[in-house]
Write the structure tokens for this entry.
Amino acid sequence: MLVIRPGDVVSFELPMAGDRQVFETSAADDVEWDFATIYNLGGPILVEGASPGDTLEVEILELEPGPWGWATIIPGLGLLADDFADPYLKIFDLRDRSAATVAPGVAVPLQPFLGTMGVPTDEPGRFEPFPPHKGGGNVDCRHLIAGATLWLPIWCEGALFSCGDPHAAQGDGEVCVTAIECGMSAVLRFRLSERTIAGPEYRVPQTVGSPGPYHGTMGIDSDLMQGARTAVRNMIAWLVEEHGLSREDAYILCSIAGDLRIHELVDAGVWNVGMTLPLGVFEPDAGEGA
């Protein structure tokens, strides 16, 4: 276990989720997922002087994706599990460090972040990174880019921070169950504060994602999850019809570049969930659709 002092900077070399299960040359039928070993974390790190009731400040200094990444559709998983019965795997070349090509004329800008950063809670037992919890874990918050700061409540002596699940790009919602999974070099600075917080907080110094223009679809329903499904299904239909994507590539594009948003919840019992997709992912000659 690495022991550090407040103010120390730590460099990580983090393997991708699925390391040694999926390769750059893999096809969907080649991969045998082992969910017991698919996840890889760096840590835990013991921070001297960290005590329950304190707050751990994690400053994200540098994030550098590896040379390639992947996204997949796994039968039975994801927001639209009932719609996609067959496995699908997409490999991305990340060597130009700027964008990942989803299909001809469609490229997603890279905005790397760590899907998992967290500390164990004060509850007994073994801790897994997911589902996320009051100490963080697999929060998959794409806003935690380089330059952002994350604050985590400390529940155990030493804080025992861990991180991993590197992503080259992701939309809010990660609807097909993966982002662009990749290896990553990360540099983090750790500080302590005596203030007490109830759950993770963060600050982002710049806009994450495209400010616009973007295309949006709505899912209006009395159930938030069903509304989310409708919004994503409608976006997939638009991508297939207007931009000629396969349904599988459209679903993955929604996961790695589309954002689920709660547009409205003030009406009694009926919610409006939106899916937005920046038009900047399309090359100019690919058209903007209607």
In short: The chain is about 10% helix and 40% strand.
